[in-house]
Each structure stands twice: as C-alpha cells, then as structure tokens.
Amino acid sequence: MRKYLARRLILALATLFGVSVIVFVVMRILPGDPLVAMFGMEGFTKLTPSDRARLIADLGLADPLPVQYAHWIRDIATGSFGRSFFRGDSVRDLIVHRGPLSAEIGILAVLVSWVVGLPVGIVSALRPNSVSDNVARSASILFIAIPGFWLGMLIVLASLFWFGYKTPLRVIHLWQDPWANFQLVIGPAIVLGLGQGAYIARMSRSCLFEVIREDYVRTARAKGLVEGLVIMRHALPNALLPVVTLSGILMGFVLGGSVAVEQAFGVPGLGRSLVTAVIERDIVVVQNLVLLYAMIFVFVNIAVDLSYAWLDPRIRY
Amino acid sequence: MRKALSRLTLASLIGGVVGVAIVLGALAAPLIAPRDPLKTDFRRMTKPPDAQAYFGTDQVGRDALSRVIYGARTSLFVAFSAVLLGTTTGSLWGLASGYLGGRFDLLSQRMMEIFQSFPDLILAMAISLAIGTGMPAVIVAIAITRLPFGGRVIRSVALTVKELAYVEAGRASGASNLRIMVLHVLPQCVAPYLVLATTHLGVAIVIEAALGFLGVGIPPPTPTWGNMLADSLTSLVPHWWLVLFPGLAITVTVLAFNLLGDGIRDTLDRRLYATLFRSSMPSAPAVTAPVAAALPPAR
Amino acid sequence: MSHIDRRTFLKHAAIATGGLAVASELLPSPVLAQEDSPLRPDPAARRGGTLRYAVHSAAAHFDIHQSGTVANIGPQGPMYDNLIRRDPRDGQTIIPDLAWKWDIAKDGKTYTFHLRKGVKFHDGADFTADDVKATFARIVWPPKGVVIPRTPLFAAVSEINVLDPHRIEFKLKEPRPAKFMLGSFASGWNVIVRKKSLEEHGGNLRQVMNFPGTGPFKHVSRVDKEIWIQERNPNYWNKGLPYLDRLEIYAIPPFDPANGSALLAGKLDYGRLLDPVSARKVKATPGMTSTDFYQTVVQAFFMNNKKKPFNDPRVRRAFHLALDKHVLVDVVKDVAPMMVGGFVYPFSEWASPAAEMSKRLGYQTDPKPAVQEAKKLLAAAGYPNGIKDLDFLVRDIATFRLWSVAIQAMLKETINVETKLRVAQASAWFDEAQAGNFDVAISAIVSTLLDPSDYFTAWYGKGGPQNYSLWENPAFHDLTSQIDHELDDARRKALVRKAEDILEQDPPLVPVSWEKIYDGWYNYVKGVNPYKIIGIYDVVRWDTAWLAK
C-alpha cells in the first residue's frame, strides 16, 4: 500500500510538472505586452525601444525561457503566486480571499450530488422498470443535458421574481456570517450538485442492479436477513466503489463548470476572477489560477485512487 | 431486461431523429428562419413572444426565433468540427501510441494524462486566450480538450488488436507498421470512435455555449446560443424569453445527441466496450463493466 | 449647507463692492483669512456613520492623473484635495481649497496661488509648494511613458516657480481666458500628491495603491474588485469636516443592474451611474430620490481619415446624416441615459439652442430629408452604390455593442454601406484605435471642461490625444487658436459657432449621443446636491455629506 502511495505521488508530481510546463508555454506565446498593462496603451507608445528593453529586463522577462520558468516554480514553491499586471495585486491574496468560497461550493456540490443521486439510484435499482425508476432515469438524463449555468440563470430569474434576489456585493466567508455565506453558496452548489447527482444516480443504479444479482447477496437473503440489511450491509458497499471513482472524476467537471455557474449567480468566487483575468488578458493571474485548478484536480484524482485502493480489499499493489 | 433494452432503443431512436432534425434545421436555416437574424427593428425592441415573433425580440428588435435557428448553425458547426478534429487527432495519436509502443507510447501517455488534468472549460479558456477568439480559435480550443479521450480509448483498442494472430502474421510477413495500422488496426477502431464522437458532441456544445456566455467565445454579432444568454443579462430583470429559448435549444440538442450516443454504444458489444474503458480512466485500478457502461464522457 | 453666517455674507459683500479685481473675467479670489474655507460645517449636520456607495468597477491602475475614468477618481477622490475646487454645493463655483487665495496678473500671464499653512499629508508630512510644483510639473511636462489627459489644458504654461513654501506661481507664455485656466486648475482630476511619492516611483503611480493625500478620508483597506474602505481623517485641515466616519466604496460596473438592485435592497446608501430602469424605480420609491445630470462625455463614431473613402468630407457628412440619432438614443434607453446633441456640448453655454438644432439636418426627428442628402453626397463623392467591407471596431461595453448593431443596420438600409463588426476589450480597443487599425470605430471620449478650448483641442485638434480619426481642417484649427486667445465672452461664442459650422460640413466624428448620469439615494443622505453637477469628476470627495439617521 505504501509502495503504491509513493508511486502514485511520484506519478502525480511528474504530471504536475508537465502541467506547469504547458501552462507556462501557452501563456508565454501570448501576444501583448506587460508594459502595456503597466503604462497603458498611450503611455506605452511614448516609450522608446531602449526604455522598453530596460523595463522588460527589470521585469525579468528578458531572461531565457527556462530561467523564467525556474523563477516561476520557485515563486510558487515559496507560496508566492505572482502579482497581477494591473494594480499589482497579489494573486495569493486573491486565492486566499476567494478560494474558500469556491471550495465551499465544490464540497457542497459533491454533498448534494450524493444526497440526491444515491437514494434515487438505489430506488431505481430496487424497483427496476417501475414508475419511480422511469421517472428517475428520465430526470437523470434530463439533468445531464441541462447546462449548469443556464439552470443557474433560470433560478436567479425565478428568485428575482418571487424572492427579490439580490446579487452579492462582497465575499462573505463562513466564519464571518454563516447565514449570508450560505445564501451565497447554496445556489451554485445545488445547480452543480444536481448535474453531478444525475450521473451518480445512473451509476449507482447500474452498479447496485448488478450487485444484487450476485450470488452472495442471494445467499444473504437465503440466510433470512431482512431485505434492508441485505442491501445496506452486503450489496451497497460493493456497489459504491465505482461510484466513488466516478465522483472523483466528476470533480474535474465541477471545477470547470463552476466557473460558468459562478458567473450566472454573480457569486464572487475564484472562477469569476479567472474569467475577468482572461478578459483583461492578465497573464500572471490566468497562469497561476489555471495551474491551481489543475493541481487541485490532480490531487483529487490521487485521493480517489487511494480511497479506492483502501476500500477495495481485493486491490493491493 | 429485454423490455429495458427495447425502451432504451426507443429513446435513442427518438434522440437520433430529433438530432437529425436539428441538424437539418440548422443547415436549412435560411429557408426556415422567419427573419434575418441580424436585422434590427427599432419599433419592436424587447417584445415578449407574440404572433409576429414566436420567441420574442431582443434589445435591438432582432427576432429571437431566427437567432436561435441560426445559433444552431454556429453552435453545431463548432461542436461538430471540434469533436471531429479533436477525436480524430486523438484517436490517430492513440492508435500510433498503442501500436508502436516503446518510448513514444510512454511519452504520449504522460502527455494525455497531463491534458486530462485540466478541467475542460478552463483549458478551453486558456487556449482561446492564447490563440484569440473567432471561430477557428474556439474550434481548436475545444478540440484540444477532447484529445485525451480519443487517445486513451483508441490506444486500448490498438493494444488489444496488436496481439491478435493475424496482425502478428502480418508483421511476420514483412508488412510495414503503417500498412498494418491502416489495414488491420484502424477498422477495429471505427466503432469505438463513433461512440466517442457522438457522446462528446453534447459536451462540445455545452463548452461552446459556456465560452460564449462568459464572453470569451465567438464574438458578436454572430448569433450563438451562449452569446444570446450573455446578452440577456444586461437588464435589471432579465427578460424571460431571452433566457428561456436559447437554453432550451441547448438542452434539447444535447439531450438528443446524448440519447443517440447511448443507443449507438448499446448496440455495440457491451463487453468489448467495457474492456476499452477500463484503461481509459485516469488511473483507476480494475473497474467493473457497469462503471464503463454508465461512464460519462464529460459534462 | 444652506446657512449663510454673517461673516460669509460680509465677505461676499466685500467682493461685490470690488475686493480684488482681476483681468477682464469676473472670477476674483474671495478675500478670506488664511484658515477659512467657504465650506463651513453645518451645525445641523449629524456626525458619524458609514456611507456605502458603488462607483464603477476596478480601474486598471491607481494613477489618478493618468486616468480618464471615474473608476479611478471615484474611489480615490475622497483621499485627496485640489489647489482650487468646484463648490460641491452647486458643482460650478470655483472656491479655494489647498490654495486659500489666488492672484491673476493684469496681463493674464501669471497665476499666483497662496497655499494654506499647517496642512499635513496622511503620512504626517507637511504640505508645501514643492508638492504642488511636483504635481503640476508632471501634469504639464509628463515624463517618458506617462500620458496625462489634462496636459493639453496647460499647454500655455511655461514655468512653475516656488516663491516660498506657501506660495507658487504659474507663468504662461501667452494669456488665456481666466475662466478656462481656473477651470483647468479646479478640475477634480488635478489632485495634489506628495513630491516624495512621485520621486519614489519614477513619476509613475500606476501600481501604487496608497500614495498619501491631504484629503478628508484616509485609506484603510481595499479588496480588489470588491470594496475600498476609507476612514475619516481626524487631522483634516478644514476643521469640522468631514461628517462621516467611514466610506465603503463598492466596485460595480457602470449601468450594471446590480448597483440599482443593491441600492433598492438597502445594501447601499447612494448609487451613482445607475441604469435607467433602477433610476425610475428609485424615483417611484418613497424615501428615496433620484436625479440626472450631465456628463462630460461624448459617445462618438470615428471614421479613419487616413483610409479611403474617409479622406473625403462628403463621405463623412453622409455618414453623419445617415445615422438617426433619436433612434440611437432610444435603442439604449433601458441600459444608459443618453441625449441627442451636436459637436458642441448641448448643455453648455456655447451650444446652439435646441430649437435651432431640431431643424438642422442630421438631428431632425424625421430622418428622411437627412438620408436623401446623405445619398446625394455619397453619389457625388463617387459611391452611388454604397461601400462594402468596412472594418468596424467596437469597444466591449453593453451600450456600444447595442449601438454597433443598430448603426450597422442603419448604414446598410439608408446608404447601402456594409460594415463588419469587431468587438475589442478597452485596452485592445485603444491599441487598435491608436494604431489606426480600423475603418470606423465607436467608443466614448471624455473632456475635462465644457469649455471648447478643452475639447476642440483634445478631440478635434490636429494630433489631439483623442482625435482617433486623425482629422485635420486648417480653418478649424485656426479658429480654435483664436478661441483659445479671445478673452471677450460674446466674441468667443461667435467664433465657436463658426467653428461648429465647419464641423457640421466636415465632421471629425459622428456624435452618437451625449450622456447623462443617474444618481439615486436614500433621503437620509444629506449634504449632497447632484442636481446641478456637470460631469462626475469634480464632485467626488464626500466631505460635506452626512447621514440623518
């Protein structure tokens, strides 16, 4: 197990290295000048070529690419995520300020997906082809097709009409005002959770459906156990393993989808910062945030693999 | 079980029919759209749905129904192109990687894993930041996010086919690698490739719409469903018909293609497909068939 | 602040009977003892409290002087003072600020300012004439890489001399109308900063969030794109002001419905740059007030003079006449408040009367006669069948996106001109515009003053900083020069009319519309009087605001 963990981590590190290289290369081939950000368009045109060369050198952008890359990695390792071209704000402050909000949304979304998806899947599996099964499967297929950000827009529209929904003005953390914080995150969490939940429902239905037809389940029933116990104690734990894996994979799509959903609800999360940075062409912010998202995804995958290896006693590496 | 199968087939049939209808509608847009989607009418700005405009009009008086129909054109074109480009490139790469093996295979595998480490929308945004907006750029950006899926699945097929007897025979008789790949391995990849392509179509449509919604997709005034949703947000209270119809169009289209994809996948050998998917998961160990069957390509 | 105490009354009387007469313009500096400012604290005002308001989204940088957007002056303004300022009670009268007295030489070529003693910057340093010199020297003669939109206003300044730590003089190479010069000095943009701040940052404050000022509020904290928190400056030189303890300034884009909805929900006390729908709602809500006032901005459609066919004035006038300006204002009526106008600020004293304008071709409510004329002009210029394939550069803001579509349609339907839209973000738009990479373009441009000497140079002048069309007309530039030097008001107005005629026949741009601003607030916010303001850039300090709750 420990060997597996070590191997897995080394692999992840290699992946992260590759991720960082790609992010770095993509951002560096961008047209556009950091000096424009510093001096504005008009100011930039007033600089002489020698001025520009000197300023570029000061910014460290004249160094050969591998050196720039090394500096960037060193900065990240020491916890500094660079400063925005505009206004010079620290990206780390941005992450610390808005990150928790997006993280909350992600965690809540996973919770919602399990709370909604699992029972639906179980019911479907236990009563195949019944009315509830058909309803459940239709609903799943529907929610997989609905774009999350559109669902968010509809919810906001409805809330505007019926509850007088107000767009959030500021980031409010859980420890500052729990109720206000909850109001901020619940909308996006539900929308993202429902989308994931549809996949979870489908998956748990298939898995459980197959598992309860296994011999050992039949044995348990023959032994005289109550049906409920049979399901809970014997069938479910085995059926859930693949669902856990699925949940981990879905995490990646949540990370991506959350960006659009945050925009639909107007929640000031990290995803929105990324969108603004892309629109403003703030390369430093985009570079670091994209790397952050990729890092999170890689670690989630590791966690999923480990949990799978830990949960399934058949698997030992 | 048989009943379930037939019901599923019915659903996928409906999906297929609707999908084809949408595609045809998009192609025939100039014929079926009641008005020019770019034509403004200043006497009829932001009108709710009525006899003259079934979907209402937007802030400059353009007919929303026509814009949705033409939006189908853009969105479908982008999605089809991106999936075609991405899945094909990925598949060919995976084929070569699986068949040739060795260092090339190792390197390719790592690269695909790296690509899959990015959440897809974020990768698309970053790429479009680098190469600009405009249709070709958006297509390339989305295509790149589809690469690794094709790569890994087809790689597995290639790995399996590689070991088959007649392929060995071919190698023994001196046929070149290229010849073998094209003549023997490629045909086996067609079915999985089709499944991949149809299942990823819906995803590509949603990513394109999301990019448009965020303002980093295809620039206006080209009508795309995502742009239309973004434009609806300029009022204090967004007009419901400007929010409802483009989103509905996306949902119906994605639904249709998903059902179609499901059906295509189910008509193929389920077991073969399950084997393929086992190795397409990022790094998960042994996975059972139901997982593969219900596996979502992306969201 | 409606009290007039005996002292102030006597002072005004003293002036009226001929205190200090200067030049031919009637703008003498009020004779006051050094400590006084005409802004006396109102005894009825309640002290304390926090004012919450939203103004524009985050700016691209922090250097107020280099900026032309309220995204800077709005949140940063309360922390700084000016040499002289516009009275916040009417937005017009020029009153002392850091300079308590000023003299203008008889020949109009020397302006001397007497500075207050005992004023301190927020970091404790003393305010002296050196700081004023450093501030203005940068504005008049900006260092390399620094571009300040107000530089052309001071083109006549030849020297800035520190006479003693509290007296400074500006020498002009030739006289200018005093109204114009004083208006330039009083512009809200020209905040006074520390000489040391400029020296420490190489004359470029773009990335410096908190450079000290002398203003009524001090910086506390800022969260990017969210909020800027400022607190009362207990050592403010104008004793008794400000009344508020705190300012919370939120960052919401202009005309964004979120501003109105936050205001209506009680999360904000004051809303500036509201969208029209919210403004109407505020007006209809008891306990709240809303008003509109004019803004020193023109929404302009540019035509690149360096590219065919726009080198021909007939073509440009054809475009001018083909655009139905009343409809264009209507198109954005739910997004932003606009009004029709010509080439001169329609609400300034130099504008042609409204009755006359409504009869002029290109501004009539019935567009047909103008369109006829446009077709004739285009044919005469050699394009009877219209023009194809024009590159239309659009700035990425809701109003411009809507307008570009409308204009595209109008041009096609009236004079068969086809354009291709290309939307660009603000910085990219300026990039392309400066480089001349467009055929036609649309954006908004700002001037500091309503005075034609400002924008006839900045917008229409040869090589003017905002003359993106690269337009030239020798007769017009000649007239501008005369307008700059003419000291008699009536004669000046006549010259402006002549210049306007030239502009109508040979348009440098098409004035799509002129802007109004909607403000909305709760009635417990007192001490503000936006009714008469022109332009939001001069009234940003909040030193006279208080809360009646």
Blueprint of the fold:
The complex is a heterotrimer of chains A (317), B (299) and C (549).
Chain A: H1 2-28, H2 34-45, H3 49-59, H4 65-77, H5 91-126, H6 131-145, H7 148-162, H8 178-211, H9 215-222, H10 227-265, H11 270-280, H12 283-311
Chain B: H1 2-27, H2 29-32, H3 64-100, H4 102-116, H5 120-131, H6 135-162, H7 165-172, H8 177-214, H9 225-231, H10 240-267, H11 270-278, H12 289-294
Chain C: H1 6-16, E1 50-54, H2 70-76, E2 84-86, E3 94-96, E4 99-104, E5 110-115, H3 129-140, E6 157-164, E7 167-172, H4 178-186, H5 195-200, E8 217-223, E9 227-232, E10 246-250, H6 257-264, E11 270-272, H7 276-284, E12 288-303, H8 313-322, H9 325-331, E13 338-339, H10 354-359, H11 368-380, E14 387-395, H12 398-415, E15 417-424, H13 426-435, E16 440-446, H14 452-458, H15 474-485, H16 489-505, E17 509-522, E18 525-526, E19 546-547
Parallel strand pairs in C: 1-10, 1-11, 14-15, 14-16
Antiparallel strand pairs in C: 2-3, 4-5, 5-7, 6-7, 8-9, 9-10, 11-17, 12-16, 12-17, 13-17, 18-19
Helix pairs in contact in C: 6-7, 8-11, 14-15, 15-16
Report what the structure shows.
The complex is a heterotrimer of chains A (317), B (299) and C (549). Chain A is an all-alpha fold and 317 residues long. Chain A has helices at 2-28, 34-45, 49-59, 65-77, 91-126, 131-145, 148-162, 178-211, 215-222, 227-265, 270-280, 283-311. The radius of gyration of chain A is 24 Å and the shape is globular. Chain B is mostly helical and 299 residues long. In chain B, 73% of the residues lie in helices and 0% in strands. Chain B contains twelve helices and no strands. Chain B has helices at residues 2-27, 29-32, 64-100, 102-116, 120-131, 135-162, 165-172, 177-214, 225-231, 240-267, 270-278, 289-294. In chain B, helix 6 (135-162) packs antiparallel against helix 8 and helix 9 (225-231) runs antiparallel to helix 10. Chain C is 30% helix and 21% strand. Chain C is built from 16 helices and 19 strands. In chain C, helix 6 (257-264) packs parallel to helix 7. Chain C is globular. The chains are: A mainly alpha (317), B mainly alpha (299), C alpha+beta (549). Chains in contact: A-B, A-C, B-C. At the A-B interface, helix 1, helix 6, helix 7, helix 8 and helix 10 of A face helix 1, helix 4, helix 5, helix 8 and helix 10 of B.
